[in-house]
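note to self — DONT lose this again. spent like an hour looking for the file last time. sequence + predicted structure for the chain T wanted, 275 res
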Amino acid sequence: MKPVIQFSKLYEVKKLLRKTRLHTVCEESMCPNISECFGNRTATFMIMGNHCTRRCAFCNVEKGFPLPLDPQEPYRLLQAVKALNLKYVVITSPTRDDLPDGGAFHFAKCIRVLKENIPDVKVEVLIPDFRGIKRALETVLREEPVVLNHNLETVPRLYPTVRIGANYERSLKILKWSKEIAPHIYTKSALILGFGEKKEELIKVMEDLREVDCDFLVLGQYYQPSLKHHPVVKYYSEEEFKELEEIAYSLGFKFVVAKPNARSSYKAFESLLKN
């Protein structure tokens, strides 16, 4: 059964985002689930602006030099979360290689402001790689998010053409360090399928994630945002997604979402509830 989209709430969320001058990855990345999520008064908030310092070939977030950080943004985020009456909040950001800590302190401040002002709120963060700076990761984990999410996105062979500026081993190390620093905090990662990866490569990445004790996995289909982006090499069938989901569970993941429209923060609260 398809989810019911509540259009009045969808526009309510859009209006609130404009009022609070907040960005969402839902809008910036042209997420296929935006109507469902906004219609149910949920969103993945994108802090630190809407310009990314890297040029991943699949991503629709604007590329370029970002504006300076806004010290009031955590409080505007709090305003939006209160207005939406959210008890589970997902926060992400573009990659900010222009900042010495990659924006880790700003992430931490956003978590802290929410937790200090909203009883029992739970915060999931979807972080960039902070250029592999371990102390930046420690800064975020110190604020006790319930889930630390960092996406591998694709297989190592395709990083030079798909995830330009990133490094597979560095990203894997972020998830490994998270479990070493705060083993009680769930870790999550996601892969986008359709860039030309092979099945055995996908399985190897899943094995790598389990070796660093990653808890949750999301697998979704890549849709080309524009002609200037990486082309779709393959569209996966529902049966193929189901097979990959079964393989992932057999490897020991606690929760797996494997569907064409699945994205990293889609139904994030459900994954936590089931664990």
